[in-house]
Write a structure and sequence with these properties.
about 0% strand, Four Helix Bundle (Hemerythrin (Met), subunit A), 6 helices, mainly alpha, single chain
């Protein structure tokens, strides 16, 4: 069961991505209805940027396909290589919790310096996770 424990933070990360996607959908559709923006007028990202004023959720959604991709791969590597332990689990959870904080800031009040701190901290947790995996894999 311990090896499968790495998939719980993965599920939470996927749930976060879904929640941000849902928020993006609600914000975009709401603005398009309020301002009577025809869908074809936002067919490209340039058109959307010119017409849709609140891009916080959309920007955060894109962020959830950058560093988190390396997190998902790390979780699979940890599970497949038998490298799931207290350190890898703690780092996986740290990454996910910091990404939740990052998304809450980004989709909420969006203070850049706070968002930056959460981003850097989550990145450091991810790099530490990969370092722990590398050490475990190299030791054999």
């Amino acid at each position: 069961m311990e090896g499968r424990a790495i998939y719980l933070p993965v599920l939470v990360m996927a749930a976060l991505t879904f929640a941000v996607w849902l928020r993006m959908f609600v914000v975009r559709i709401g603005q398009m209805k309020r301002e009577r923006i025809h869908p074809q007028k936002v067919a490209t990202s340039a058109q959307a940027a010119a017409l849709l004023t609140d891009s916080r959720a959309a920007d955060n959604f894109r962020n959830l396909f950058e560093l988190p991709v390396l997190f998902y791969v790390a979780a699979v590597v940890a599970a497949q290589a038998g490298q799931v332990g207290p350190v890898t689990l703690a780092l996986a959870w740290a990454f996910v919790l910091l990404r939740i904080v990052h998304s809450a800031i980004h989709c909420g009040y969006n203070k850049v310096i706070h968002r930056f701190y959460a981003y850097v901290a989550s990145g450091l947790a991810l790099w530490a996770l990969w370092a722990a995996l590398a050490v475990g894999l190299l030791r054999g």
